[in-house]
Amino acid sequence: VDVSELGEFALIERLTKLVGANASPDVVVGPGDDAAVWRSGDDFIIATTDTMVEGLHFDPRISNWADVGWKALATNVSDIAAMGGAPTFALVTLALPKKAPVEALDSLYEGLNECALVHGVVIAGGDVVRAPQVVITVAMIGRAVAGNGEPLLLRRNTAHYGDTIAVTGRLGDSAGGLRQLRFGASGDEVLPRRHMRPTPRVAAGLAAVRAGVTCGIDVSDGLLQDLGHLCEASGVGATIRASDVPLSGELRAAYPDDALELACTGGEDYELILVGSQPALDGVPALTVIGEIVDGPPGVHLLDNDGNQIKFERPGWDAFRS
Amino acid sequence: VDVSELGEFALIERLTKLVGANASPDVVVGPGDDAAVWRSGDDFIIATTDTMVEGLHFDPRISNWADVGWKALATNVSDIAAMGGAPTFALVTLALPKKAPVEALDSLYEGLNECALVHGVVIAGGDVVRAPQVVITVAMIGRAVAGNGEPLLLRRNTAHYGDTIAVTGRLGDSAGGLRQLRFGASGDEVLPRRHMRPTPRVAAGLAAVRAGVTCGIDVSDGLLQDLGHLCEASGVGATIRASDVPLSGELRAAYPDDALELACTGGEDYELILVGSQPALDGVPALTVIGEIVDGPPGVHLLDNDGNQIKFERPGWDAFRS
Hints:
homodimer; 6-stranded mixed beta sheet; 11 helices
């Protein structure tokens, strides 16, 4: 059996079992959520890591290096935001071919630094190794808000029947932007910029845990797939009203026929999906309510205005099967 | 200019400047040492990251996956030991080709878990991505011993004229073992095992900071090169007596003519070089004194019994030039 037969999510499940991290009483969250959390003295530390591989996660012919640097940090910041925490420090590992031009590195670090500055992150160290292609791995450390000696977190496994489902921002712009970039659009246009310079929702995540929301995930693989992970972890179903999925005017204008599909399956939006009681969600500014947690087996149903289910060919991104 | 013209160490220096990490008052040690250190509440957190790339850092034809897993974790534990800290948590990122066999992963995690167990490390999370070859990145978090509200650390820049230079263990076994592996030796033999299953010196590092030693580095690139980094950071010179460099009986027997060169330039020993006053070093068990810090420009002189300098063709490992 090879990993492409297994698929990304069965693979993660297998590796999670192999690790068996709950060995330490200091571990609050082990493998399987957006980030790990452990107790350190009176603090709760959140840690995550994310990798971008040249040719798979970015294409230097269509992204400039500063954008790649921004995004490498931003995806990690988003994982911390998806736990309801605030990012603090990062380690950056670069794998580089011998022939990598030094100017590309300067530009990459410009983007890393810009994203770090905006999110109050300090790049405290890292590693440089040689490799056949550029691989950027960021490990990000953050801190959880604590209340009564316990961390206030957004988990995947705390959705309950009757909860409301809401999202930050607009969905699908990133996938629309990637499509435009592939057809030669400039990186300065609206949708391409949303693809290359995503804004992680740290403030929304912090507001959510302070308002008593305990369930959330970020949209990295696509709304339906990421919400599906959350339903799986919580053992609940979800219905989403297609007409309530927030789409930008730019996306509707560029792809009138595909905007909904891009929003539901495109991924890399780095918006937050927040799940909780309506009063708790009311404490988070600028959310869009898109559906409810329902009884029944885990799974997400996207419904049109007549209550009929809408299905797409590909529900979202699987790194090993796609 | 590309990175191979610049070389690994000029590249690290350039990236260190690009980061400018001392932006936060919580940063105790920024880029440029074995690991980063920052204050988190009353604690001092140490963090490091290290990457192994298939075909460059390991060859699956001569190493089994369990050994690769052990070493991926051990090199990071060694960086924490080289700061005088204790490792606590790790994140493991795997980049895998689609055709990676699942059994190899089981075996890789067996080695990771074994090393984690021995060193009291919890693998708390990670990431899996697709890539053309296997890349294993570990981010390791540790804790520094604190005294009077300040962390007790082994730094590179605290060597002083007159200090004694000592090392843990024996040097060169790893390089000798790699040579034997390349000539078909089994991984169960003594030297190959030292190459594939290095033992990071956590206890020695902790004993050193408790005894008041403040200067050290681990041997990853080779004794002369790593001590050279330390001299550079401290602005001092060093002399090493060749006859005092600790060599194992196995290494002398296998490579009677090259044992000293392997010990001085081979690297991947993951022993600690500790530099301090003789009374402070006396507080660390089982060290071998090999030389002194001397006046003069940064640089390491290896001397034979007549006081003549011994030079080798290649001083150590440079990932981009080698």
